Amino acid sequence: MKLLSIPVGVSDFEEIRRNGYYYVDKSGLIGELLGTTGTKVTLITRPRRFGKTLGMSMLESFFDIRKDNKALFEELEIAKRHELCMEWMNQWPTVFVSFRQVDGLNFNSAYDMLTLVISELYKKHLYLLDSDKVDSFDKEIVKQLIQGTASTKDTKGSLMLLTRLMYQQYGKPVILLIDEYDVPVAKANSNGYYEEMLDVMKGLMQALKDNQALCFAVITGCLKIAKESIFTGTNNFISDTITDSRLNEYFGFVQSEVDQILKDADVLDKAESIREWYDGYHFGDFDVYCPWDVMNYLLELQRNPKAKPVSYWKNTSDNAVIRSFIDYAGSNITGKLETLLAGGTIVQRVDENLTYDYLHSSENNLWSMLYLTGYLTKAREEDYNGKLADGTVALMIPNAEIKEIFETTVIKWFDDSTKKCNRSALFDAVWNGDSENLTKEMNALLRRTISYHDYKEDFYHAFLAGIFTGAGYMVDSNKEHGEGRSDVVVYDPINGRVAIFEAKYTKSLDKLESACDAALQQIDDRMYAEEYEDDYDQILCYGISFFKKRCMVKKKLAKT
């Protein structure tokens, strides 16, 4: 494998280019945006980890009048457009601000983070304090914004003020770049101060409305929040989402780019596994790989050429969206999740104009959320052949990475929901040796689980152990004793009793009973119960067999 300088976690365009890091040329985005300069505001929404911040950093580097970055764009696609570069490259006052750090458990702490972001933004423009084109009243507000002591009114108006002052300074209208505009309201919705934060963000976004100092604005985010919710009164406004095709090749890697990356790294033999794990997103007319995953995996391959693909979303994304979705919808969505986990498609209405406070108002909104945040993607025609009604989309899990996230999240949800259930009837059946009621209670719990197209014994083992874990019992899994290993042993030392479970999995319903008998026979043959005879008054041995969401339990009383 050839060693490439892979910039994982670096979203600063200038840092990447100056240090000679590997860069996939996305400069064509500049020409596409300048082709619609009659549009004042362009909102670009994509899932996280698809290169939005790097794209915005590139735009700042290209337009900012205070920079001279011609060398950074040499040999990139945009450099071939000489007249465009003469007119636009480093010729315009530019403001770039990101709200991705605005977070807090309550409004005051989040607002403090927001005022810090505004303060740091103004520190990049300290020259305004020395300018004879800025009056003393505005300079005083600038000082307060830098110090973090400005009023809420002035904080809300800070972007409008900055664009006006820069217009006065340079005599040219300003290009405004706002990254991750929806993070503050998303965090606010999760922590219970949505209305307060929405009010502040509405104020900041007034810089987009009837602003004579504005040349044009580009905004990025994860969701297209309904225009009337945050962009009230903003005219000349267009959005580009994952259902559109104009800009999608500039966010994520298309197949030709991945082919070139693998060729440059001399790892063409990894093409299929990378496709299986990190491809599968269908944005507009483009099939797209997640760039974060591709670059992380290439970096890992440089360290360990035998490395297998893993999920890089697990520790970087807010997978709580899946958990909150399942908690809200419960059994209503079980069948659909089972279809998705089996590699199938579901048809749902998708609304791109969501507001965070209404995400949980309907099941359709939640499916829309999973689609817009990249956990589901639009199925291609070959994946879904039926006729779709207007406003509906055939959805599927895009790749192995996201499927793994769904599976682990669903299993964790089931474990937690099981612990919340009233299991007293089940426990009574265990200690009373009532295999008939135990079978009934076990089946009721199994019906609450999510089906898999490839049931594994590990699933049933975890299911069985999870029933008793956290319920006041000591639980051993695969404990070594006798002449083998029983699956699960449950101890109740206070009452001097122990229950031994041996589980079997069968591939057909008609073999449930024979598998159950085989489990009991194994307990006998391998003498699982003998070691407990001196310490426990009651030893209960159970054979249990599983088939999908069905089970059978039989009991053998070893000692009373």
TrEMBL record:
It holds the Pfam family PDDEXK_9. Residues 7-231 form the AAA-ATPase-like domain. InterPro entries: AAA-ATPase-like_dom (IPR018631), P-loop_NTPase (IPR027417), PDDEXK_9 (IPR012547). SUPFAM superfamilies: P-loop containing nucleoside triphosphate hydrolases (SSF52540). This is AAA-ATPase-like domain-containing protein.
